[in-house]
Amino acid sequence: MKLITTHTYIKVTRKIDWNVQKYEEEEKIIELYDDTIIWQEDQILMSDVFDVSYKISKRSMGVLYLHTNRGVFPFYVKKVPEDFIEQYKRLKKK
To answer: Which domains does the chain have, with CATH numbers?
Structure first.
C-alpha cells in the first residue's frame, strides 16, 4: 500500500449548548493509496470506487464526493481537490 496523495476535509458537528446552536469544524485528512482510500471513519478499496467528483458550494466550502458501491460519501473541503481527483483518475486508468 503506497500513499499517493492526501487532501484536507472538514467534519462539521452541530452542538447545542445552553440553548445556543453552534457548529464546530474539525480538519481531517482523506488519504489516497494505490489500492485504498482511507479517512478517519472508514476506508474503501479502489475497486469499489466508481468515480470522484467535486461541486463548488455557495458557502465557503465545496464538496468532494466519492461514488462507491456502498453509496456516495460527501467530504466538505475548503480547497479545490484538483490533485486528489487527478491522481484518482490516473490510478483508475491502470
So the answer is: 3-93 (2.30.29.30)
What per-residue confidence (pLDDT) applies to 61?
87
Lowest mean pLDDT among 14-18, 67-71, 81-85: 14-18
Range from 11-15, 33-37, 68-72, 74-78 carrying the lowest mean pLDDT = 11-15
Residue 69's Cβ-count burial label (10 Å; 0-12, 13-18, 19+) is: exposed
d(C-alpha 7, C-alpha 5), whole Å: 7
CA 17 – CA 22 distance, rounded (Å): 8
Cβ contact 24:13 at 8 Å: yes
